[in-house]
C-alpha cells in the first residue's frame, strides 16, 4: 500500500509520519470530489494500490482488505480517509456499506501480528 504525505494536511501528516516511524505502511484515501461508487472504487484501486484482480465492487474491496497477501509486508497498516463527508452526503447508502467494509476489515485484523487500522479524518 503506497504511502505519502505530499498532499496530506497537518495534523494528518504527523500521524502518518509516526505510524511510518513504527514500521507501519500508511495511505491516505482522499475522497474529495468523489461523487459515486464507481469513483470511490477507482480511487481505492489507485490510492491503495489494489491488485489487478480487484473487481471494483464492495465484495472485492472486502476481499482485498481481508486478505492482504497482495500487499508488501508491514508491521501494521494505517489508512486515513479524508474528504469523505461529500461522498457520505451524496451517496449515504453506499457510504454506509463503505463504513461496514472498513469496520469489518479492521475487526478482522484486530489481533493480528500486523493490524490494519482505518481512520476517518474530521475537518
C-alpha-based Rg, rounded: 14 Å
- Secondary-structure-derived class: alpha/beta
Task: Outline the biggest β-sheet.
Answer: 3 strands, parallel
Question: H/E order of the elements?
Answer: HEHHEHHE
Low-confidence residue ranges: 1-6
Strand runs, count: 3
Shape: globular
Q: Bin the strand percentage.
A: 15-25%
Write up this protein.
The chain has 123 residues and is an alpha/beta fold. Helix content is 44%, strand content 15%. It has five helices and three strands; from the N terminus they run H-E-H-H-E-H-H-E. The chain has helices at 12-21, 37-47, 58-66, 85-90, 92-109; strands at 24-30, 76-82, 116-120. The chain has a three-stranded parallel β-sheet, with helices on both faces. Helix 3 packs parallel to helix 5 (92-109). The longest helix is centred in the C-terminal third of the chain and has 18 residues, at 92-109. It is globular. It starts with 11 loop residues before the first helix and ends with a strand. The model is unreliable at 1-6 (pLDDT under 50).
Give me some keywords for this one.
three-stranded parallel β-sheet, 123 residues, alpha/beta
Give the topology, please:
Elements: H1 12-21, E1 24-30, H2 37-47, H3 58-66, E2 76-82, H4 85-90, H5 92-109, E3 116-120
Parallel strand pairs: 1-2, 2-3
Helix pairs in contact: 3-5
In short:
This protein has 123 residues and is α/β, with parallel strands linked by helices.
Amino acid at each position: 500500500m503506497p504511502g505519502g504525505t505530499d498532499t496530506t494536511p497537518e495534523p494528518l501528516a504527523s500521524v502518518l509520519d509516526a505510524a511510518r516511524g513504527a514500521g507501519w505502511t500508511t495511505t491516505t484515501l482522499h475522497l474529495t470530489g468523489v461523487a459515486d461508487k464507481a469513483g470511490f472504487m477507482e480511487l481505492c484501486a489507485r490510492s491503495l494500490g489494489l491488485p489487478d484482480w480487484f473487481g471494483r465492487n464492495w465484495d472485492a474491496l472486502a476481499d482485498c482488505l481481508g486478505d492482504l497477501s497482495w500487499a508488501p509486508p508491514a508491521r501494521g497498516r494505517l489508512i486515513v480517509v479524508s474528504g469523505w463527508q461529500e461522498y457520505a452526503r451524496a451517496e449515504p447508502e453506499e457510504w454506509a456499506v463503505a463504513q461496514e467494509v472498513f469496520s469489518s476489515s479492521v475487526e478482522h485484523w484486530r489481533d493480528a501480528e500486523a493490524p490494519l487500522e482505518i481512520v476517518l479524518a474530521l475537518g
